[in-house]
C-alpha cells in the first residue's frame, strides 16, 4: 500500500510512532523478566542434575551390594500417582511438580537383607529428583520459546516498525515542505505577472 503524502497521513504516522514508542518499553521489560525467569529455571535444572549425580555417587557402596546380591528387586518401587499443576508466569503457562505417591511392593522384613529398606528410600528419592528434572526441563523449554517470541516482537518494533514510521514521517514532511515552497513560488510568479500586466492594461 502506497504512502499518502498529505497532512492526514502525517498525523496517522505520528500517532502510530507514538503508540510503538509507548508500547516498546513494556514489551522489553517483559522480555527482560522472562530472561531472568529462564536463567533461574536453568540454574534450578543444573542444581537438580547435580543432586541426582551426588546422590548416585554417594551410594556407590550400596550399588556394589546390589550387584553381588541375588535378591529380586524388580518393580520394588514405582510411581503410583503424580500431581502436575500449572502456574501463569507473565502469560506463559509453566508446569509445577506437586505430590508424588509411590507404590512399594510388599516384602518380608526377615526374608530380605537389611539394605533393602535403604534401596526403597533411594529409589523414591531418585524418582522424585528425575520427575523434578523433567518438569524443570519443560519449564525451561516453554520459557525459551516465550523469550524467542517476545524478542522477535521487540526486534520488529525496534528495527522495522519504528524506523519505518520515522522514515515515512520524514518523507511526508519533505513532500509537504516542497509542495508549500512550490505554492509560494507559484504565488510570487502570479503576483509578478499581475504587476507586469497592470501597466499594460492601463496603457490600453
UniProtKB/TrEMBL annotation:
In terms of InterPro entries, this protein maps to: V_ATPase_D
Keyword terms, alphabetized: Coiled coil, Ion transport, Transport
Which residues constitute the signal peptide according to the record?
none
Question: Keyword Coiled coil on this protein?
Answer: yes
Q: Which residues form a coiled coil?
A: 31-58
What family name appears in the similarity comment?
A: Belongs to the V-ATPase D subunit family.
NCBIfam families, per the entry: PRK02195.1 (NF002565), V_ATPase_subD (TIGR00309)
Q: What name goes with this protein?
A: V-type ATP synthase subunit D
Q: Source species, please? A: Stieleria magnilauensis
